[in-house]
Amino acid sequence: MRKGTSISRRSFIKLAATAGAAAAIPGCEPAARQLIPYVVPDENVVPGVPSFFATTCSECPAGCGAVARIREGRVVKLEGNPADPIGQGSLCARGQAALQGLYNPDRLARPQVRGDDGAMRSISWEEAQKMLGDRLLAASKAGKDRVAFLGSPQGPTFRKIALEVLGAYSSSRAIFYEAISQEAARAAAKTIFGRRDIPSYRIDQAEVLISFGADFLETWQSPVELARQYSLFRTPQKRRGTLAIGRAIYVGPRLSMTASKCDDWIATAPGAEAEIAWSVLNVMVKQRWVSQNSGFDLAALAKAVANFDPAATSARTGVPVETITRLGEAFGRAQSGLAIAGTDDSSAHLAAMIINAVTGNFGKTVMFLEGSPAEETSTPDEVNAVIEAMRGGKIDALFINGGNPVFAMPASARVAEAIGKVPFVVWAGGVPDETAAMAKLLLPAHHPLESWRDTAPRAGIRGLGQPVMQPVFDSKPVGDILLGAAAGSPSAKLPWASAAEAVKTEWLALAPKAVGADPEDFWVSVRREGGLFEEQHLSATSLDLSAFKAPVPAAAQPELSVYAYPHIFLYDGRGADKPWLQELPEPVTQIVWDSWAEIHPETARKLGVAKDDIIEIKTEHGAIEAPVLVESTVRPGVIAVPLGQGHRAYGRYAKDVGANAWAMLAAGATSAAATARATGGTRRLVTPLGKSDMMGRSIVEAMSIEQLARGVVPESGAEEVSGPYEMYPPWKYPKHKWGMTIDVNACIGCSACVTACYAENNVPTVGKDGVDRGRIMSWIRIERYFPPPKEVAQAPQLYLAPMLCQQCDHAPCEPVCPVFASYHSEEGLNGQVYNRCVGTRYCENNCPYKVRRFNWFEPEWPTPLNLQLNPDVTVRGVGVMEKCTFCVQRIQFAELNARTEDRELRDGEIVTACQQACPTRAITFGDSNDPGSAMMRRREDNKLRNYRALEELNTQPAITYLRDLYREKGGA
Amino acid sequence: MAAAPKIPVEPSYRDIDRSVLRVMEPAGLAYWAWIGFCFTLVAIAAALWVRQIYSGLGVTGLRQPVMWAIYITNFVFWVGIAHSGTLISAILFLFRTKWRTAVYRAAETMTIFAVATAGLYPLIHLGRVWFFYWLLPYPNQRYLQPDFRSPLVWDAFAVSTYLTTSALFWTMGLIPDLANAREAAAGWRKKFYTVLAMGWQGTDRQWRHYSMAYLLMAGLATPLVLSVHSVVSWDFAMAINPGWHSTIFAPYFVAGAIFSGVAMVITLLIPMRKLLGIEDLLTEWHFDNLAKVVLLTSLVVSYAYLTEAFMTWYAGDPMEQMTFHMRYFGPWGWMYWVMVLCNCVIPLLLFSPRIRVNMRALWIITIFVNIGMWFERFVIIAGSLTANLEPSQWAGYRPSITEIMITIGSFAWFLGLFSLFSRFLPIISMTELKEGIVWLRKAIKMDRVKAA
Questions:
Q1: Does A686 touch chain B (CB under 8 A)?
Q2: How does pLDDT run across B302-333, given as a tens digit for each residue?
Q3: Which residues 781-840 of A are in CB contact (within 8 Å) with B?
Q4: What is the nearest CA distance from A168 to chain B, expressed in angstroms?
Q5: Which residues pair with A647 in a beta bridge?
Q6: Does residue A198 contact residue A186 with C-beta atoms inside 8 Å?
Q7: pTM of the shown model
Q8: A445 DSSP assignment
């Protein structure tokens, strides 16, 4: 042994043995964990197998049917109800997000009473019911009509319950109102048809559609149904020997998502839409482009609209004469047309109805249907009467459920002041909102998904809602609360003891009375179907122009006006407590988690403001502050502000976000004259969007209908690709190769697919700061690009298309992952193995479509939002990459079922979440190996419109897009 | 430290030993304060890294689509710097270059610690660093292998090979010098150097084995100089992004690596030479030659920039052209032009023989070179990602405090280790100086003549 360190044999063996022994001690067994939470499961619960309950969506008055998917006793996903004629199986973003209202962590957990010092105290349900009953009784003893109910419409049965309960307290003051009201339409219908009803529409039966300020794809009446009709309207079909699509024109102050899907946007100041409509009527009547037997006295009509010749209208509105005459010509000469109005003044609605009627379209594209009537809502006079009664101290007890009047009523109504005068205010609901802050007694109410209820959105349609799971909190159905209180009143003779009983009784009364028919069968069938959907018959309607007065041109437009419109996702404010809805970028402006003031560049220059500067917008009714967004998507002289943001209560996701535009408005008006000034502050508007210019890249493509008719494929700037370039032997797909066809023409940008994906795949939200820092997690996104100025004539107004993982055959993300976390499956999917991902992020760097998402932090779902998580999909942890999987859990589920049942998979058996939610059926998923599949046939049938995103990169995507269709400018 | 006694014009072996070993005497407070400062910065960086592991990469400024930015820039920067050390010590050894002898030990040390610094970054930037070993092909019962198609796996092999080879080469080269130090030392130092010298007695047999082994290691290390950085550059060249996807990357990056590495050697040696009092051994002649290498590689790098620009224009791919347009004239365009100034324009000063031996000017120029080279990596890596194929996903990037402190900490780690080495291990190869004593005498004579 030489000098230096040396180790003897003995020491070496000692060391080795110790080390070896230490390594051999096994790790402790993990503590036994419960996998199945039940010892004796409920009869509907088979762990791992979902059950489905039909119910209805309550997130807007459209009343689409919904189906709840229940796993282990909790609802994890809502889908549209295929049996329902309104939604027909689709469910929009608002409907998908209803689950976040059900599981909202800020829902009231137990009854609370506000002390005189303002402090809240929790009490038991017994105490609460007693307090309620006592105070209502005391109020009724003081006189008639001293008890009032103020709330949102919740179906015919609930209306009956409320009226019965109020009757027990000698009152008839039941107000059911919608913040986004249809009053203008109803008033117009009463004027010329003698009925206060909303007609039904068939956009797909029209050749020309003019929308006067109606955002029918977003928030107007029944957006899901109308979107479906619109997609049919815009589907190319042979018309008079040539391929054609419907022509749509939008007249309004803002390029909304709806306007961007039309051929033309005619920018008018708010309120000027009616002027344009009358002028169109003037043109048509003068040129005799009207039906001869429509029942109108054409001479009288011409006289009535004599003030609206195109020159005069053009002078008053700034819309060119040529535009108006061409509009009149297009509508008048078309075989069928439809004019709709969405403004706050009934003049435009009146004009639209007359335009439809005088061209013989009544009964074709717009009609009244007979059948069980739609639910009644209170008139503005009725609402005002109750508010004034409150202000006058004539109401002793007020019960509020839904509607959030303190937030969602216009400033001129001064509702908060009126409510403040009521000595006893009870609020029943979910997440305490601004109105709850004024209540003495707060009662946790069941969410609509936990309740027995019904809807009557339209004639002949009655939807039935049933509880889809046990209540999440210690809440009660509102009907039960009311009936429970009234039961204590001595004069009460209530027909039912609970809301559930009421609904069942009312529905059994609808059962067919045939001999031998068992009403119980009927009850089972309506619960399974989700309602009673009658065949729709035209209702006999006759024109009655006795009340019609000649329209008068509106006063001159103010120099600056503010225009408020319901935010597509937040609607009237009810969506603000749902993080999915806050994090969805508004389709046109792409802004999240904020309100904004959209201003034209000219106006911005005049005001001396730039993007993100906070301005104060002031009307005679109030003022708000909002950051500026400078875009040409709004008319000069108009400031467009979305409604629905600006809560000061309503939970952690809604509180102190943005500004409440209702605070500036007058009752019944969605616009007002305004002044604006910079406040000197700034607030960055947050968006996940980068650049809005596609720079000629082949990401969203379009072609004109004229090109399609000629059979010409448009030139694209991209390199010609003659076929896949293979360096290696191509993949073999022995059984299935999954793919998608996405029709960009059908996509309206509504983001139902995005929300459905969030719900189905446990995608976390990251909040405003997270989105600002580029961490949004959406697996599918709506790409929005503006056509560059020099291409505006050969492009749609906006490029909108869904972008998701293209599941490429030559996926650039696969060879670069060092650990095979990104790999190619035998069925053509690019799989992502979450457990294997070490987070090098090379895959996202190499993805040309940038569809992969990285978990920058550990995602969190505050209880009980975690109850919504889909057990079929892994919840990813920090440091892991994720992306769209073509809903591989649904593929697996279907394949396992097929194998269990020993049969082949059927086409259409696998439906991805995005496909299922889409109102216009833009997405079709299927098997590329099966040329007869719906997806492949859709591709084949639209061969000229096929393209693949960034095809020249040779990624061989599995998704084929169908080009958007636009109309060449200056064409017929 | 006391002022260094001037080495005689005709130094003997003993004079050389004494000059070098003098540096390894116990150091003063200033030195330890510097080491303490460096390792305090390292501790801060380490703490921030631990926080990053705990919370997630969200604490950085990384985002969609800029998923690689400062960390990977630092990785490539340090790996690049490492290469010149091996160039000097291995390749120039094979070419029997005379001026290499006094500088190669410091250069090789720089290599080791640069690779050690670089090797941290693939760990730092991982989302789940506790599974880093999945990039290595170890046998496991799931039969899982890393994906050998992935440039990151190639990186793992290349960098670990480089680290191993350089470490062996370096350790081997140190042995005779450590034996020297062992003889001159006392107390715990003697024990320390005894262990490290591994029983070297300087016998004839040992010298013969040593020479052969050294030659073979030099041969083994030589191809690594070209291959390792080529492999690292293929992290980008193998990707689809415009601005990354280019066949020029391997020679481009290797030339840049030598460029920044030799500049870093100069940056380190100039103060070291002053502080440790070894001006006599590290003469102007050495720096003149190093500066010539810097100038040469600067010209190669300038040529590479021009080639890249030309090919982008000539190929006519609009997406690639847009990315380059953003690189030159976009929001980060200033970085590109700083890079051009530092890499292409300023080194032209080295055409002047006077500047090449002016220590102050040389030091400033080489610092600019490294600033320019850092920006080059950043502009390529993060800049290309900000202007990628999907315009709706274009976004800027700003480093967070975590990334900045970890970057600073890595510089402190490198400098701290290098400073420790320079006092505890022989910073100049006494063995090689003695081997090339003829040339050394010539160099010293030239220096004295100039000074006189």
A1: no
A2: 999 999 999 999 999 999 999 999 999 999 99
A3: 783-785, 803, 812, 815-820, 836-840
A4: 59
A5: A655
A6: yes
A7: 0.93
A8: B
